[in-house]
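User: Hi! I'm working on a homework problem where we have to compare a predicted structure to a textbook description. Could you give me the structure for the chain below?
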Amino acid sequence: MPQRILIADDEEGILNILSVLLTKNGYDVIKASDGQSALATFLAEKPDLAIFDVTMPPPNGFQVCQKLKTNPDFQQIPVILLTGKGTEGDRFWGMEAGADEYLTKPFDPREVLQTVKTLLGK
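Assistant: Happy to help. Predicted structure tokens:
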């Protein structure tokens, strides 16, 4: 059974690029377009990994990540924050929220795919 990845981003183009990339590499993809639907979808689907944009409609990616990572049931599920916010302060808050990786946009699809594979142990 393919591993499932939740992608949450308010930019449809990013959702589509990541969806195609991950689907072509054998993953099942679930999409959400804002923080609220990302949380609801995560809780309903329990994906193997999640990729969240930081600057999506509330709650933002930092908040979604933190909410999930403070729940013992979900702490082991890897979270990647993929965002245009690339300052050291942003990176710090991403790690403080519990993110397993913090990647910035524009992104290299190969780097995203390699990060996913690494976090999923492939």
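For your comparison, note the following. Helices lie at 12-24, 35-45, 61-69, 88-96, 109-120. The chain has one domain: 4-120. Good luck with the assignment!
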